[in-house]
Structures are given as structure tokens and as C-alpha cells.
Hints:
The protein is an alpha/beta fold. The longest helix is centred in the middle third of the chain and has 16 residues, at about 35-50. Strands 1-3-2-4-5 form a 5-stranded mixed sheet, covered by helices on one side. It has helices at about 15-20, 35-50, 65-70, 100-109; strands spanning about 5-10, 25-30, 55-60, 80-85, 85-95.
Amino acid sequence: MASQNTSPATDSNFDTDILKSQQLALVDFWAEWCGPCRQLGPTIESIADEYVGKLKVYKMNVDENPNTPTRFHIRGIPTVILFKNGEAVDQLVGNHPRDVIVEAIKKHL
């Protein structure tokens, strides 16, 4: 469920790849069994393609990586969190339209 412009986020790479990044990062918390997550997937991938070089996009399977979602109090999926300079700066829970996600991204670029 990842395109060439998305990367997997894991419990082990989260701090180094996302929190310590100087670039704005979007993390899509999802699971295979989640219908809304699968519907949101193509939207996240198109955003990753459009914002290459401006935004790093990661997908974290919450079933395979339980520690990070717990750390950020993820209670429902899909959840998209934007991170900048090691801090969560925006969060969207649910399958939001593309323009809502893009608007959140633009606030932090």
C-alpha cells in the first residue's frame, strides 16, 4: 500500500526518519482491514506525488507497529498527522477529502 513517493514508518524508524527530519512529514496511520484507510490510500499517494521535495509522506501500519500509535494517542484510523521540527502540528482523523488534507499541509509548508 505504498507508492514510490511514500515510505513505510515503523516503531524503529519513527524518531530518526520523522521526528528528527527538517522537512514537513505526513504520517498516515492505517491498517489492512480498515475500509476507510484503503479508500484514503490513493489520496495520500497522489499527495505524495504532488509534494515531492516539499513533504515526506509515510504510511504506518498500526497492527505491525503498535508503540508509535499509542505514543500519539491514536484512537481511530485512518489518522493523518503532520510533523514539523519533531512536533505534531496537525491531525486529521477519518477519511477526509483531498482538499482538506492539502489545506492542512499548506498551513505548515
